[in-house]
Input
Amino acid sequence: MTQQWVETGIQIIILIIGLYLALFKSYFHEKGKNLATLEDIKNITKIAEQIKANISLFSNLQLGIFSEERTAIIDSNNKYFQWLNLLLDSSLNNIDTYDNKELQKYLSVTSSCYQDFLNSETRFNLFVDNNDLSSVMNELKIETLKLISPHFSHYSINMQKNNNDIEHVKMTITSAAQKGKYSLLFDEREKIHSRFCKQIINNYKQLIPLIKKFQKLSREHIYKLIKDTK
Output
């Protein structure tokens, strides 16, 4: 997209300069290459200033597009890692995992972060013209949804069920019989958490090469933008 803007701007400038030169050629032909009158000089100066203004406008427009492109890349990286870090946080930001409302709220926050990433991806696709980078980001999103996201959802559902079972024991079983039931439920709880952590770690390892590739291509494209604006 940026390249198209650059090419269009160059074509506009070439057209303006061509018209400018044609004006000079016509002017000198008609004047017999005599000295220009004061009025002629004012007219030529006015045209020159208009050309300078158009060139300045194009330069500012080009810099604005470069800035939007760079911001889109940085924002997509930030939003992706905000989402990923929430999914990988086995401590769940130290929330009370015995409280189903807090588990549901955390799940809602991760969903909101994913939506933020999708929004940044839309902006990225609008401004960034880099097929390799776009392809890697899309692949990274899909692999994260496959390898990481489902495990947290399952973990949250299983923990909420465990919490409900604990509450059921409190309400329906006599104190003398509660100890054995609690022991089984707490053992199950430990297994749920341990399984979640193991799955997350193993699957995250599979994502690392793709994450590094995404960061590398993002960095290279930003450096290229900086170089092109000098």
In short: The chain has one domain: 2-228.
